[in-house]
Structures are given as C-alpha cells and as structure tokens.
Write a structure and sequence with these properties.
Blueprint (H helix, E strand, L loop, with lengths): L11 H15 L1 H27 L5 H17 L5 E7 L4 E6 L2 H10 L8 H15 L3 E7 L8 E7 L5 H6 L1 H4 L1 H15 L2
Antiparallel strand pairs: 1-2, 2-4, 3-4
C-alpha cells in the first residue's frame, strides 16, 4: 500500500510493450491522450488525498513542499529521478528533466522515435501541479530520450498560455471533445 492505496510493481518493459500494442491497435494520439488523462486524474486525486490528510498548501513554501513530496512519490514508484529546472509559482511555469526509465526502455525496444513517449509522466506532472495551483494546466514533454535527447524535459503551464505551435504538435492533448470524453469515462470508473 502507498498512501492507503493498493499498488503493484511491474517491469517497465511490460508497460512499454503494452502501450506500444495499444498505439498500434488504436493509434498513438488516442492512446497518448487516454494515458495522459488517466495519469492526470491519478495525480490530482493523490494530491487531494494528501491535502485532506495533512492540510491544504496555501503559502508558496507549502505548495513547494507539497510538490517536492509528490516528486518523491514519482521517484518511489519508479518513474525516474527528476531535476528541477524551473519552479515558478508566480508565473505558474514548471520545468523538470529526467532520464526517464520509460523512454529509455521504449527506445531500446522500438528504436529511436520521432515523438515523445512519456504521456503518463506528463499526465502525472499536469495532475499534480493542477491540484496544487488550482488552475487548468497542460504538461508537454518538449524533449525525450526516446527521440534522441539526453534527457526528457517536462514543461507544465496553464493550458491557456501554450502557443499555437505547441497545440498543433500535441493537438490530441488539447482536443476538447476527446478530453471531455476521456475525463468523463475515467471519472465514472474512479470516482464513486
């Protein structure tokens, strides 16, 4: 149990292969959006559970501490070690980098990709930060080990502040109809 939630550990290669099969069967963009929003919901619920149990973070320092606690959980669960590149609560801009174990495994199994693959980690960042700052955010992986970068880079900021190029290149995360349907489906499953 982690925070009174049943968890299990699986080899990262199995998660990579399963996601790869889903991508082939249903299309990368749809699967990426589903994985992203599932992780976003999971992280948001996790932050809310911690806040209910230990109190809400109100000051910038408390929010920073809550963010650090969640980074520790990401690392504990095997998503990699994250380096803070920028944490700005005034501008609501958060940039973290990592040698993602998922991206390394993906590229070793399926060679270098032309796209980022850490949809789940991006969703975790978005859900965690959105729950902390209480504003709608989107996290994009702007660099990825699976596409040849030395590190994966995750940029999270308010959804409304992303430029048109970012939206065009990751339209599946910004599609309001798809997003609404996925979130609706997930809430029925998770929130009872």
């Amino acid at each position: 149990l982690l925070w009174c939630t049943p968890c299990y550990i699986e080899p990262i290669q199995m998660r990579v292969y399963l996601n790869y099969l889903f991508e082939k069967e249903f299309g990368r963009e749809k699967i990426a959006a589903m994985i992203y929003h599932l992780a976003k919901l999971q992280a948001s619920m996790g932050v809310k559970i911690i806040c209910q149990k230990y109190g809400y973070a109100e000051s910038i320092k408390e929010k920073f501490d809550l963010l650090n606690l969640n980074i520790g959980q990401f690392e504990l669960l095997g998503y990699g070690s994250f380096k803070k590149e920028l944490t700005d609560f005034k501008k609501n801009l958060f940039i973290y980098s990592s040698e993602s174990a998922y991206a390394k495994s993906y590229s070793s199994q399926f060679k270098s990709q032309k796209f980022s693959v850490d949809y789940f980690i991006s969703g975790l960042w978005a859900g965690c930060i959105e729950a902390i700052i209480e504003k709608e955010v989107t996290c994009l992986e702007t660099k990825c080990v699976a596409s040849g970068s030395k590190l994966c880079e995750f940029v999270t900021k308010e959804t409304k502040s992303w430029d048109k190029d970012a939206i065009k290149n990751s339209k599946f995360l910004f599609d309001p109809k798809l997003t609404k349907q996925i979130i609706s489906d997930l809430k029925v499953f998770f929130v009872r």
